[in-house]
Design brief:
38% helix; disordered C terminus; six-stranded mixed beta sheet; alpha/beta; Mannitol-specific EII, Chain A
Length: 154
C-alpha cells in the first residue's frame, strides 16, 4: 500500500492554525467529511472515541488519529502540518505538528492496520519529517508523500 492509495492532493493542509488537540480533530473531521458520506460531527466522535483509548500521538511531533465506520466504503487519509506544535498527549510528551488522520470501513481489518503501519513508517523517518516540516505549501507536502523513495514501500 502506498500513500497515494490513501490521500489525494485536496486532502493535504499546510499550516493548519489549530491551537488544541480538539480543534485539530474538529478541523480534520470537517475536511474528511468532504471525502465520505459521514457528517463531520460523526467523524469527530469516531476520532474522540479512539483517543479515549489512548493518545494517537506517537512521538517525535507526530500523531496518527484514526477510526472506523460502517458507513465508509474505502480507507482514506487527511494530512495536516500544524502552524504551531500543540500538546497531543503524545507518548513522549512532545508537542505535535504533523498529523495524518485515517478513516477506514468497519470491515477493513488488516487493510486498516496496513495503512496505519504505512503512515507510521513514512512519518517516523527523521529526514522525511524534517522535509515535511520545511515544505513550502500543500502541493509540496503532497508531492513528498507520493514521490517517496521505494525503501519506504509497504
Amino acid at each position: 500500500m502506498s500513500l497515494d492509495d490513501l490521500i489525494v492532493p485536496s486532502a493535504v493542509v499546510a499550516d493548519l492554525p489549530a491551537t488544541s488537540k480538539k480543534q485539530v480533530l474538529q478541523d480534520l473531521s470537517e475536511k474528511a467529511a468532504q471525502f465520505c458520506a459521514l457528517p463531520a460531527r460523526e467523524i469527530f466522535n469516531i476520532l474522540l472515541q479512539r483517543e479515549r483509548l489512548g493518545s494517537t500521538g506517537v512521538g517525535s511531533g507526530i500523531a496518527i488519529p484514526h477510526g472506523k465506520s460502517p458507513l465508509v466504503d474505502h480507507i482514506f487519509g487527511i494530512f495536516a502540518r500544524l502552524a504551531r506544535p500543540i500538546d497531543f498527549e503524545s507518548m513522549d510528551g512532545n508537542p505535535v505538528d504533523l498529523v495524518f488522520m485515517i478513516i477506514a470501513p468497519e470491515a477493513a481489518g488488516a487493510d486498516h492496520l496496513k495503512a496505519l503501519s504505512r503512515v507510521a513508517r513514512f512519518l517516523r523517518d527523521p529526514a522525511t519529517a524534517a522535509r515535511l516540516r520545511n515544505a513550502r505549501d500543500a502541493t509540496a507536502l503532497y508531492a513528498m508523500m507520493v514521490q517517496e523513495p521505494a525503501s519506504h514501500a509497504a
